[in-house]
Design goal:
The protein is α+β, with helices and mostly antiparallel strands. The protein is 31% helix and 25% strand. α2 (80-91) links the parallel β3 and β4 (97-102).
């Protein structure tokens, strides 16, 4: 049996689930569009990041209004991160200015490190950059937004023994694995 790992934004993952083209999915929120069996296995914090040289880096507490002059580097429409960011900003009536839109977290991280703007991103995607001092988390009131990681499959899908074992492993060990990897980001 071959294992295939595909990375996609929320819309792409939902399409794969709907067409029954994947056994398991890991995502931030189970879709309403497709009946699934989902299990929440770990917290998923979202934060605002900046280059260490940014004028607001190191401030003990910020409100969103203090970020009004900054440009944001954002994920593409259809991304769960983009949706979480837009909901957070709308709830706080914060109008942001988009400098760049990208479908890759890596592209956004590199642009933030280059001083091109700020970004709203999963804390889990920046562990190495934080440890290396290449990025910082801004201490913005109301953040982090803590979502959840879910492992899920289409309801009624009969999982292979491998997929079933991986589902069980994430359910039982996923949170611990994520915490351990964040504690030692070089690994």
């Amino acid at each position: 049996m071959a294992v295939q790992l595909l990375v996609g934004n929320r819309e792409e993952v939902i399409e794969r689930l709907a067409s029954n083209d994947c056994d398991l999915a890991i995502m931030g929120t189970p879709p309403a569009e497709v009946a699934t069996r989902a299990f929440e296995f770990a917290p998923h914090p979202q934060v605002i990041i900046a280059a260490p040289e940014h004028a607001l880096a190191g401030q003990p507490s910020l409100n969103l209004r203090q970020l009004a002059g900054d440009s944001f580097l954002v994920r593409e429409p259809g991304s769960g991160t983009r949706s979480a960011m837009e909901k957070f900003f709308a709830r706080h009536r914060f109008n942001y200015r988009t400098a760049m839109e990208a479908s890759s977290n890596e592209t956004i991280k590199q642009a933030v490190m280059a001083g091109m703007g700020l970004s709203f991103m999963s804390r889990h995607t920046i562990a190495l950059e934080l440890a290396a001092g290449r990025l910082v988390i801004l201490n913005v009131e109301g953040l982090p937004v803590v979502r959840a990681w879910y492992v899920l499959h289409r309801d009624g899908k009969r999982l292979s023994p491998t997929a079933s074992a991986f589902f069980d492993y994430l359910r039982d060990n996923g949170a611990r694995c994520i915490e351990e990897s964040l504690a030692r980001p070089s690994g």
